[in-house]
Amino acid sequence: MDRQSASLNSSDTSTDPALRLVVFDCDGTLVDSASSIVSCMQASCSSHGFGEPEPEDIRRMVGLPLEEAVSRLFPDMDSDTVWSVREGYRDVFMDLRAKGKIHEPLYHGAVDTLQVLHDAGWLLGVATGKSLKGLVSTLGSHDIQDHFVTLQTPDHSPGKPNPEMLYRAMLETGVDASATVMVGDTTYDMEMARNAGAVAIGVSWGYHALEELLEAGAHRVIDVYSTLPETIDSLMQTDP
């Protein structure tokens, strides 16, 4: 995959070999937001005169930029309508969030694992298909925003599986790709990690199946958060 900007190529920046970085996906990895995403997408599609996509079809698009998700759900939709449905989704989501009706629970063990990694000296970041505003709101609602030193979203980068969000995270933290780990629940996360030269760890509790994650390049797939630190340590001792 072509790199979008030479300045974001991690090999072109000064890195500190003592620094290590773990980047997490958000939806399906840190929080279970499927029900909210599905209901908002169905509401926007319906309001624009389209049939409601099946919940499973919507879940499979989680992690992609909104406009790409809409385009994949409706391949024949013109670009102006795609944008309108995208904006409709955001309007519905923001309205429900303002009313306290967005349900995005943290996955079991997430907070404890973030603390374990932080205490072990890892820098932590997020790379997600959410907007920056949405990501900040989600992290803030669980009071975990202070764990992360870099937040990467499609606001200023191409979406997954393009590696630019990871390049930016490496650039901001001064960490080399060889010391960077991506943790996510979709093939888009695994492909992004591989494209960036980072270690790819899948989680089995999200929106894509274990077999798909492995086929997309996951070095390992974990079933519970508590095993993430030891999995990272094991993989970082070998050549990915």
Describe the structure.
- With 240 residues, the chain is an alpha/beta fold.
- The chain folds into two domains: 6-32 and 105-236, HAD superfamily/HAD-like (Rossmann fold), CATH 3.40.50; 34-98, DNA polymerase, domain 1.
- Helices cover 43% and strands 10% of the residues.
- It is built from ten helices and six strands.
- It has helices at 34-47, 55-61, 66-73, 79-98, 110-119, 132-141, 164-173, 187-196, 210-215, 228-236; strands at 21-24, 123-127, 150-152, 180-184, 199-203, 220-222.
- Strands 3-2-1-4-5-6 form a six-stranded parallel β-sheet, with helices on both faces.
- Helix 1 crosses helix 4 (79-98) and helix 3 (66-73) crosses helix 4 (79-98).
- It starts with 20 loop residues before the first strand and ends with a helix.
- Mean pLDDT is 90; it is low at 1-13.
In short:
This protein is α/β, with parallel strands linked by helices and 240 residues long. The protein contains ten helices and six strands.
Secondary structure elements and their pairing?
Blueprint: E1 21-24, H1 34-47, H2 55-61, H3 66-73, H4 79-98, H5 110-119, E2 123-127, H6 132-141, E3 150-152, H7 164-173, E4 180-184, H8 187-196, E5 199-203, H9 210-215, E6 220-222, H10 228-236
Parallel strand pairs: 1-2, 1-4, 2-3, 4-5, 5-6
Can you tag this structure with a few keywords?
single chain, 240 residues, alpha/beta, Rossmann fold, DNA polymerase, domain 1, 2 domains, six-stranded parallel sheet, 43% helix, globular, disordered N terminus
